[in-house]
């Protein structure tokens, strides 16, 4: 039976693929504008950030491709859209920082982690640069070496 990796209680969803595919150079915390049914679904842990990314339009940041599954008990008078655009709440200096980073060649802005902070939903976003195949191999090799090193230190 495979062990399930434990995540802290306040984490709703993580994008592990982003750390594999990108070098994360800087992280920021952003609030999210959500509807009531989305908050209820997040409390139930029904979110997927795997393909989530951020785009900038008209001086505002928006989250795309973050799938929040509606609950079966959602109200009958609303039509929930699980992949709608969600506005990010950032300060002007943070928006300027990510806008400047996105203008650089090879940089993108990805969603890393969705979590609770003081009963509010926060999104950790990262300024990222894409990895090449040889970079991914080097990261994997380094990770395996660290595991081996820890095993040797544990047994001696």
From TrEMBL:
The keyword Cytoplasm applies. CDD domains: SmpB (cd09294). Residues 134-156 are annotated as: Disordered. It is found in: Cytoplasm. Signal peptide: none annotated. It comes from the Bacteria. Gene3D superfamilies: 2.40.280.10. One of its GO terms (cellular component) is cytosol. The keyword Transcription does not apply. InterPro entries: SmpB, SsrA-bd_prot, SsrA-bd_prot_CS. Keywords: Cytoplasm, RNA-binding. GO terms for molecular function: RNA binding. Its main location: cytoplasm. Residues 136-147 have a biased composition (Basic and acidic residues). One of its GO terms (biological process) is trans-translation. NCBIfam families: PRK05422.1, smpB. Required for rescue of stalled ribosomes mediated by trans-translation. Binds to transfer-messenger RNA (tmRNA), required for stable association of tmRNA with ribosomes. tmRNA and SmpB together mimic tRNA shape, replacing the anticodon stem-loop with SmpB. tmRNA is encoded by the ssrA gene; the 2 termini fold to resemble tRNA(Ala) and it encodes a 'tag peptide', a short internal open reading frame. During trans-translation Ala-aminoacylated tmRNA acts like a tRNA, entering the A-site of stalled ribosomes, displacing the stalled mRNA. Belongs to the SmpB family. This is SsrA-binding protein. The lineage of its organism: Bacteria, Pseudomonadati, Pseudomonadota, Gammaproteobacteria, Oceanospirillales. The gene is smpB.
């Amino acid at each position: 039976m495979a062990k399930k990796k434990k995540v802290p209680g306040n984490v709703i969803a993580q994008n592990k693929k982003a750390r594999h595919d990108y070098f994360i150079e800087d992280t920021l915390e952003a609030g999210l504008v959500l509807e009531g049914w989305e908050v209820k679904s997040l409390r139930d842990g029904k979110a997927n950030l795997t393909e989530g990314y951020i785009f900038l339009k008209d001086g505002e940041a928006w989250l795309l491709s973050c799938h929040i599954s509606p609950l079966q008990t959602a109200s009958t008078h609303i039509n929930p859209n699980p992949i709608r655009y969600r506005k990010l709440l950032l300060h002007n200096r943070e928006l300027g920082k990510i806008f400047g980073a996105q203008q650089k060649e090879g940089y993108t802005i990805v969603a890393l982690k969705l979590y609770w902070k003081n009963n509010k939903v926060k999104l950790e976003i990262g300024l990222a640069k894409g990895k090449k195949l040889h970079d991914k191999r080097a990261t994997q090799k380094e990770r395996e070496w660290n595991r081996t090193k820890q095993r040797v230190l544990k047994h001696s």
